[in-house]
Queue: 4 jobs
Job 1
Amino acid sequence: MGLSSATTTAATPEGVQLCIFDLRRGQNEGQELDKIIFFFPADLPFSAQFSVIGLSEGLITFTRIFSPEAACDAIEAERHSHVFYEAEPDIWMVMVVEKNKEFEPIWRSDALRKVLKEVHSLFVMFHGSIRALLDKDPGGGLTRSHLYHFIIDYLGDFLVGKKLLLPSFRDSLKERGTVQMLTVGREAAIEVQSLVRVLESCAGNMPCHSLILFQDLLVSTTLSPDDTVNLFAYAVLRLSPRALSSGVSSWSYLRKGATSHVSSSSSLARPGSIPEQLHGSLGNSPAGDKSSQVVRPLQPDKWSKGKDGFLVSDIWGADASTGTSATPTVFLHQTEERMYLCAHQHKSLTLIFLLPVSSVLKGDQGVSAVKQQVLENVSRKLLKVEEKLSKGWGGENAYHVSGYRYLLADGDRNVSRASPPGKVTTLTKGSLLALSKVREEVDLEKSRAKSDNAGHEKELEISIRAKNNAWVIARVTRGKELYMVLEKANETLLYASDAVEKFSNRYCNGAFSLN
């Protein structure tokens, strides 16, 4: 099961393969190639691609015999880890990661699966579901081209030198697929609510959804949780002030490439054009001559701030009637409705609002009219809100708790808060490896509870003493998870439990208290 034939070329980032295939396609002999709708690296020989996908399909079929509703999530082979994600019915994403020579458990399968889930969710937000695209494009050529450029642009943010730095044990105090919220005082919250109401009034009778960020933190949203996560992730990647500042690595918990084991002075590839080691030979890529038809929302360094404060990009082409950049559109997960996306920025405050395409008369001209209303009626509110939030902002270490390195995640609300990355770097490798193992154990227990169809949330408490004498603690209760590292040597379990109780009572309203 080591996939010895599926080795990467010297020009390709080592040790990672990512594929998407459709079980409904390529069922007849001689049509097996039709099953593959994405493969990275694209210049891998087809025989090696078939080897990876054939093994993956066999594992899925085999495990479905024992678990029809939930096929395999991950397979650990001697030399590789295989992570599976059924993105859509019968459309599977598989990541194969080569293990390092020491065979250290440097990553968690669930963390890698969340990478697959995130790139799929972002793709669907901009292009719609893969199945819908394939239904319109039976040959699959244009669908492959969309997927190829989108995923390569996404992977570019993980690239350091010639290596893809995927989430590892050093990222165990981060939670992908969640938003990080800014804590605001009562006066600031009232101002934010007033801003949202004025913004909605600018749209007239049209529905208007909004998302407001300060720095890389969420301030307000009127979207569903899933849509909030997707739009927040995109905003952090491409729209926030830090994302617009070329070469400045964001401190956000979601930002790719800002992993703790890469110093800010390292040669982080910021792909104005995606590096050759990702694209490989375009002649071998599935993009073919259809690349000119493809919209690339994740293409880096394509957004800029206009004089009026609105963010503009030429990614979506130009409006035929005015010659100005066309307004981006996204699909909402909850309603599957197509929406115009508009973003306005003032200093550290980013205001994103969405308008239904079906409700806007005259397309981009109608959007421009709403933008003008926003400039006339919202600008003063933006100034006031930004000023209040800036005064109350404690900086990048605002959520640091002395003596603790922690991650607090609320799965029901898709919200997380964690120690600042700069503080996490002070932890030793031994502490982080121990934390990764604890999180993997929690992942396994959650997966078992899900497969057992338990009608109640599983509650867990794990406390271990690492080899370096640090305490690593996990508590799971009522959809909330707390992970903590206490690097105080020679302390007792009673001390560690008391530290968790104090943290829970002060910062979590007692949610993780045992009393």
Job 2
Amino acid sequence: MAAMYNLVSNPKSLSSFLTNPPSIPCTNLTHVSFDQSQYCSSYSSITRTRPTRSSSSLFQSNAKKKKNPWLDPFDDGEDPDMEYGSLFADGKQEEDPRPPDDPDNPYGFLKFPAGYAVEIASLGLKVRGDVRRCCCVISGGVYENLLFFPTIQLLKDRYPGVQIDVLASERGKQTYEMNKNVRWANAYDPDDEWPEPAEYTDMLGVLRNRFYDMVLSTKLAGLGHAAFLFMTTARDKLSYVYPNVNAAGAGLLLTETFTPETLNLSDGGYYMYEQMNDWLGRPFRSVPRTPVPPLRVSLSKKVKEAVETKYTNAGAQKGKYIVIHGIQSDSKANMQSRGDHDSLLPIQVWADIAYEIREFTPVFVIPHEKERENVEEVVGEDASIVFITTPGQLAALINDSAGVIATNTAAIQLANARDKPSIALFCSEEKGKKFVPDAEEKKCTIISSKTGKLIDIDVEAVSNAMQTFNVSLALV
């Protein structure tokens, strides 16, 4: 709090907005000591039903974290004599309703909220922990970036007016054409263990020049990745760290760390970012806990028109076709999860499943043009085939369909995001519960293999589950 007192010569002049005792310490301090009795009472009032981990186990894991004396040897925790009021200390930050000064400027402009004063610019950031600019470094491909959408919406709800930027791989960047909450998306692969020095330093300079208040990363951080986040000069630096000795030294450079149970974060399924969401949505003074919203995607008119042309040329009609996704291929556009490697089926199995479709036209989605010949050879030359490689076009194709039959690919999550009935094929029942929790509420039927191998999926069970599409057609 020394930086705050430097703004005013007399600390007593701050009494106008430092009047009430705090219930939870400041958010932007590196490590603080929580009053467990108050925090437990507020936390226990929140009921969440999730199939992965209970709320009590999450709190117990967070409570076991000990203060690291190497971060700040002079930090004795929250000042017990400090009193907070409402000005710059309570409630949420306010979103600036004014339009941009220069809409044609690609670099935007400096947004100043109402009542902003340069002399106390950092006071709201220091006391209340406001976040005006946030950068998200996302590890993984399309599937992992798609499951990060609820976290982005959580940031928008918790910090109104925040500008969110994303760093993702080239494949992952394509996902954000379906997210209106993201300002800029840059192609930078955080999973590259040996990046080019020129590319590394250039991206670091770009992040520093944007002056972020918060940088969060889903890549398991060691000392190297933690140093990259530290050099962005952001105030809050959040990241997952390795659950083993490779995490040594990373906590010294990060504000908050999250330790997954395994080395593969995608093993957590749909709730793979649960620890980070739990910390971002935590209650703060008079602000209650911010719930995690469901997965939703938005589609542009141009993408819809382009996709409509594709499936029309393939012989399908709007609302009268079933999307089949998950054909076995070595293409990078298969959009499967890192947590489920057994999630693609050969075209011979898909041909048996498509044969059971009666009242709809099966539309086969191929990730590469070289698969077209294989599909025509097995299914027939009159098969409806659509070549799609981007998640935005796949979402538009699903949006105009009657339903989806797919393995554990991004198609299942996109069907749930657009409220379309779906049949999900998994290699095991455990995988199905992890990646599609609350399947009945999402109008999703899970069919799992009894042998633990996806190729042994029961085609008859899939055929019986197709009645879901007939019900949806009758409702239309």
Job 3
Amino acid sequence: MSASSLPESGAVPGRVAQRHDLRSADSVTGLPPSMRTVHAMKSRMETTEIVVGLDIGTTKVCAVVGEVDADGITILGVGNVPCRGLRKGVVSNIDWTVRSISEAIEAAQTMAGVEIRTVYAGVAGSHIRCHGSDGVAAISGGEVTRLDVERVLEGARAIPVDADRQILHVLPREFTVDNQDGIRDPVGMSGVRLGTKVNLITAATSCVQNVVRCAERCGLTVADVVLEPVASAESVLSEDEKEIGVALIDVGGGTTDLLLYVDGGIAHASVIPAGGNNVTADIAAGLRTPMGEAERLKRNFGCALGRMVGDDEEIEVPGVGGHPPRRTARRVLSDIIEPRVEEIFAVIRKRIEDTGLLEQLSAGAVLTGGGVLMEGMTEFAEEILGMPVRLGVPVGVRGITQLVAGPQYATGVGLVQYGANALAQARALTPVPPEVTRIDARRDRIVKEPRRELQEEMRIETKSGGRFWSWLRAAF
């Protein structure tokens, strides 16, 4: 991997690299210890986090680099390379997958100008399962805190799980405080008993470990493994859609992921082992053309609804095994694609009906993923699902957004947003050390709670001409 011009990150999970104010890096060592303490605090306040999302898909590996600061997420770089090491979302060839990850990381590093050490990796596949659970915990101190929420969620995940499976996510649907239910965020509420209802997302341990092993063989540390449709929802769904009910349909190369939101929380998650590669295989068999050419025909000329294609439109189909290319009606290509797409959407509708949540999806469905780029996909989905359907593209980020503007980048961008939220939650749960000196911006002075040795250093510096206070006024 290429060397980076940025300093190495610390030990905080998910922190890949940091950008500091370099103008005073050499001068800090010449300051007295008390002044170095305040300068270090100012540097931490100005620090930005670099978060990397690694989308390991059946047809491609995509690495997205984002810079997280107080203003939001800025996309710095993207690496996107083909991948042949997965089958239906599960790693089937370690070496091929490692090669694709290395190439994607190298491309993202070069574009972003940072060294990537830690990533948030996506996982999918038909091994994913969704289970309901609940938990109860006593409220310490009479008021709900973040730690109380963590304890009740930890209790909800304490259920028997098969030895070959592990829990990926604990997704709260609602909280209860004493006898009051339907609470989204209980922090700050008064009570003695906190309860929750959650959905547990489980995955095959071997599949998750293979993803982690591939990343580690590339010299990367996996901060967290995230279910890909959960990551995609971060980037393409609005809070209003989650509130009134929405179905997220992520059509990938090997799988189609379904995620249902009701009342602001995830109510159901499942994976269908069919996707864009099935359509490509049908085209290759039906038109007797190589798989690579079938993929090109699907992307450039494919249409999910045959009636949207004119009768006079023609395409050139390359031959296989030395046979010359031939011309055929574009309608023939559409007639091959339509039955497979109809089958996928029919299975999705059946899954939604089986959950009993069809009537609660007032916002309809959102299509995302590389498999929805064909013409007529949203129109066909509306017919089969019987609800409004829109195309979902990543939102809520800045920077070089033109590189991640398509639905095929929803998971990669969503992994960055998921990582940014995880870092924010970790900081919220981390207590401030009492010996650290705080800056009181209102009074433009230091709040007097330093350690004894720091007090002595400040007293000495003040006696020696007031250099410390002069520097502090100039710096702040």
Job 4
Amino acid sequence: MQKLMKQSDALYGTNRPARKGLQTAPQAPSGDEGPGRSSLAAGRILDAIRDLAPTVLARAAEIETERRMPSDLVERLRLIGVFRMFAPRSRGGLELDLPWGMEVISALARLDGSVGWTAMIGSASAIMSPRLPRQTYDLMYQDKSEVLIASVSTPGGTAERTADGWRVSGRWPFATCCQNADWMMGLCFMSEGGKPLFGLAGDASTPLVRCVVLPASAWQIEDTWRASGLRGTGSHHITLQNVLAPEANFFDFPAGAACEPGPLYQAWRHLQSVLLGAVCVGIAEGALSDVVQLAHSGRQQLRAPAPMRDSEMVQGELGRIEADVRAARAAMQVQAQSHWRHALAYTLNGQALYTQGIQTGTWIATICANAAHACFTLAGGAAVYESSPLQRRLRDLQAAAQHAMVQPRHYAEAGRLLLEQVI
């Protein structure tokens, strides 16, 4: 564990003093004005992650085998503030600046991809939930600020209007950490009298889609998460069958108005790909650290003229991989800072910034997946065993890069916007 943290610190530096006996923290996001509220709160979480690191690393095989996050580990993440770092301060949350929250996500992903992914989904759901009507939002946070929400942003259900609200049925995939969630949410196509309703602007080509949010006890979980990577996220299907949901448990997606005023809550859709990039960067950094540790172990591969550590070929490949991973981290930080500046100015809107975020997230996911594959290849036969973290890092990154928000097809929109610019 200490080697993993030491390697990442050597790569990414610091501007915050370490606690005695601990390695230093990741580099502060550029533009942070001294020891501000967000940097101090994030620093406490990062210190807690260092204390938690031996436990996470020791339980990696358990997390993967059980295909879910252990409940006690989820509670540890709650206690250190991971699931409230984007929640409003008015609800007892930390409301961290976006760049600092992404540092926390990548730090957890560096330890284990499934833990980082769960932290990303669990914390970022607090950015989307303020679109609920005030009375339901108040109910959600009435007992605690560490609310864990399993959210699915794929339309998987239908909601039929009734005299008392909406009758909802459906089946939603990829519900990360649903077994530990307090609330769940999923998108629905809205209908009335058996006929689909259409967009708020009356566009007959755009079906009306809204998000239904209900306590976890209202949902059923189907055990379907048998995946190639990110196995420990427990991203099963969730279902509702003929459940009556009040109007107050719906919000418009993605353009619904937020009931909280903070800058984070105004443009959820612009943040999805950028947040996902933080997970990818963390996993790639972990893979690079793993192969460096392997080289330091004295391993000499079959028919190789020298141990890995002394091999010029290995040294050259490590240098190339490190350059890619550092470039991915730099892109993540630049995009996070740009989005955060726009959020503070309440200008994080429009297709151009949305496309820019997806473009960056897609590039980061691709670069990081390639880096993990290069680390796996460099390790040779040692990486194929289940005991090697490199095979898990590779599978986790391949799974993350399959997400709909970071698919290469999104580059086309960036190219179209570029060609429309006046030269």
